[in-house]
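Lecture notes, continued. The same structure-token format from the folding unit now serves as the input rather than the output. Read the line below as a description of shape only.
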């Protein structure tokens, strides 16, 4: 499960709207470019694309054993 939560001041939410901020959170999780000045480390830690790219490095997983 991947998620990104972001806290913004009320003035920022009023100026940009919650839907714009929510869209950037969604885009960050999908690994797409965002308009927020978030650090690359944060973006790579929540990106599904980065997780998928790293999956072969971690090797095969026995899903039955995990459950």
């Amino acid at each position: 499960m991947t998620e990104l939560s972001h806290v913004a001041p009320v003035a920022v939410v009023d100026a940009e709207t919650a839907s714009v901020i929510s869209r950037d959170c969604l885009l960050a999780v999908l690994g797409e470019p965002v308009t927020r000045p978030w650090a690359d480390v944060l973006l790579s830690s929540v990106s599904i694309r980065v997780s998928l790219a790293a999956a072969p490095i971690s090797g095969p997983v026995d899903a039955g054993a995990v459950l």
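Point for the exam: The chain is about 65% helix and 0% strand.
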